[in-house]
Amino acid sequence: MSVENKKSPPSYYVPAQSPWPILGAIALFFVALGSGLSIMQLNKSDVSGIFLLVLGLAILFIMLFSWFKDVITESSNGLYSKQMDISFKQAMLWFIFSEVMFFFVFFGALFYARNFSVPWLGGASNNVMTQQILWPDFQSFWPLLKTPAGETTQAMGWQGLPLINTLILITSSVSLHFAEKAMQQDNRPRLKGFMAITLLLGICFLFLQANEYIHAYHELGLTLQSGIYGNTFYLLTGFHGLHVTLGLILLFIALLRILKGHFNGQHHFALKAGSWYWHFVDIVWICLFFIVYVV
Q1: Which of 36, 65, 80 is the last residue of a domain?
Q2: How far, in Å, CA of 131 to CA of 120, rounded?
Q3: Are residues 168 and 64 in the same domain?
């Protein structure tokens, strides 16, 4: 996704037919199927779901690296015009906008559950009889720490790992900003250093989030079977963790290209696109931190 052109072709470049889109669709199918089966097989010895999930992720990574390689080769050979540069920017912005809509829907579902479903089930608007039929001993407050089966769990507090992870992501955005400034100044030593710091901070975030999940599952009893609170917690934080992983892949590829001498102060859209995405992921986490953990 670089705009490092040796020449400006007069026409809009149309690439040859590629196997990567269909391969990516197959990979996402295996990821979705494997994820669903893995959740259903949590307490069973069947590992087919995990196998399909790992297979899908492996195919996805191969597809991403191969597709990026093709785009980098085309860009390095001077096949992209200025219109292609504009198209890349528009495509990245539309992609980020689509991700904003994804999180908007998830936050909306959480808002609806907290402000409409829970009060309604608790007897709001004269629905006392409905409450007695559906869940007689239901208590209308958030978070819901008791399931209809009588099992209880604990809420995940905002202190500790969630707060540390928030500071880590904010720091990573700052280090990435300095990396962009170094790129604009063609200061490659500073660029490499700040890019490496950003990647390490992102890896630390995922590592601590995995530890948070282990703590929630084993010590707080917070599982996918613990009701709507547990489901929304893992859905929002897990989906965000997936975006952090994708952001790390984009930045890692950009760092590899930097180490190979790609980019300059004027032409470095691959780095800029990864930076846009990373800052978007950080902003989403700050919103998620306050809405899911604090409020």
Answers
A1: 80
A2: 8
A3: no
